[in-house]
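Trying the structure run again after the queue cleared.
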Amino acid sequence: MPVDREAAAQAQRLLDAKTKPRRSLGMLEDLACRLAAIYRTASPPIPYKAVVVMAGDHGVAEQGVSAYPAEVTAQMVQNFASGGAAINVLARQAGAGIVVVDMGTKAVAVPKGVRDQRLGPGTSNMTRGPAMSRGNAVLAVETGIRLATELRDEGIGLIALGDMGIGNTTSASAVTAVLTQAPIEQVTGHGTGIDQGRLRRKIAAIQQALEVNKSDPGDPLDVLAKLGGFEIGGLAGVMLGAAAGKIPLILDGFITSAAALIAVGLCPQMRDYLIAGHRSLEPGHAVILRHLNLQPLLDLHMRLGEGTGAVLAMHLADASLKILAEMATFASTGVSDSGA
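Done. Tokens:
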């Protein structure tokens, strides 16, 4: 599963021959080379794209850690299914298919067009014990792996990741605190727009969850089971399955990046398949990006989730590959090359 470093080097040599000063397209060139390494060719075609949005409810929402009630998770899943959410608009613009997966919401019924992979009506309240059993944590990851394999078989060559779940920034903060060993206050933000009083309640809930569960930072599945969410486990599985299928992944914000901590913990090599689409306003996201040594492509002060920032970054992936494939060279045009 290691990426092809020589393909990346060949892509950079091709870029250096283009009619521009060396490395003048900056991170766009870096992105082209990263994609070349993953695809194992210096001249990758524009891939077919999909965004996977996984949804799940969180028992910790009972602690009053969100500005929205838990019912909003299922309501937004219906919105995704109806095509009216921000991610639907941006996925259409990017030419990406959208796959919505209910990993475990409290919905009475899963809307038509949404994949029903529910492992339960949301996780348990992690302030009182494990969020889920270890068995369900394994099932969540396995569900994501199977989905990524299906998408590969359908010809998908680039996957963006998104999430939906009231209370999931609380879960992601807990996972991040354990797996990066950063202070809880440093990785916990305002989520859905909560005030300072509710933020203090959120921090207290995470502290209690860590004390009650005593999860093992050396065992990512233990951290997922005790502090995570069904959708977080599913997203980690999509990453593992996509990497096994040589498909690059574009992370969205805080939740998908917390899932990446679990995936990389399970398989360190798959980090090379991850592309940070943007930097979220959530403080814990910056901590994860530093921990994984990922440089975000965009910084638009976004904090919506759903995969919105990841899908916007798909345009940059296309642009980088088009530069590699279509831009003229010094030799082909007769333009003088400085050789620098």
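The mean pLDDT is 97. Worth checking whether this holds up in the mutant runs.
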